[in-house]
Structure prediction request, 323 residues.
Amino acid sequence: MASIVPVFVPHAGCPCRCVFCNQRAIAGQAERMTPEWAKEILREALSVLPQGSRPQAAFYGGSFTAIPVEEQEALLAVTDRYQAEGLLSSVRLSTRPDAISPDCLTRLKAHGVTVIELGAQSMEEDVLRQAKRGHTAADTVRAAEQIQQAGISLILQTMAGLPGDTRETVRRTAERVAALHPDGVRIYPVAVLPDTELYNLWQAGSYHPLEVETAAVWCADMLEVFAREQIPVIRVGLNPTEELGSTVAAGAYHPAMGELAYSELWYRKLKQQLATGGDTTIFVPARELSRAIGHKRRNLLRLREEFPERSITIKPIQHRREP
Prediction:
């Protein structure tokens, strides 16, 4: 898989301010992106990457296709040059469902855009309304179909723990997203950031954010759906940075959020295996051993507590003795 060089356009093109959104805090960038700055970011990244690596440029953090077209074209002219020189492989970008059209997609393909990450966030109308997303679930379905028909890879971004969300609505969102057959998904449990409406709602006591442990359970529900439908999950949780860690005020932020969610998934698998009379010495792939045992051995301790009559151990497969 090609390396990705992110170029952040925080809040650019966004027609409304979602209650949860503070892209400047997430990206660690307050200034507006310019073509000159984008050129410098790409030049610096290419100077440290292995020669011939041909990374992919990624416009993240805003609604790229909702930016005025002349500004889009100015930024894409930068990536056009690097692609023409054989230094970039292609471009990906993130945007919102109501900012996609066939004409827009034709134009983007001409600039080497091969992946679009679409911020679906939820497929529940009431949740979208409370989050002030400004689009509907039907917009997501329409945009997803148009992107796929254009031959562009589709990544759908989802969230868990928005106002109005329940464990059931989050799982329904996963089911409805899976039905669109994206090439991949991202799962972001909600973290409360300063300078957002959600922060004010939390301070007023009218929004109750997910605890990390609850978020891991809800995200594991989503992982079950995507695993069943063989849809790759690119990421669970915000990309951790020191700055972000000191900025998050409340909610489901953890630097290893993905590991916690996958660990919850392993707990369910192991519990089912033991409940059906499976061997008390459980072998798992070596690369999954830490997830299976759980953070601070939590899964192993829970299983031993729930099956006190059994001596449970979890070992990597390559340690299995030949019969």
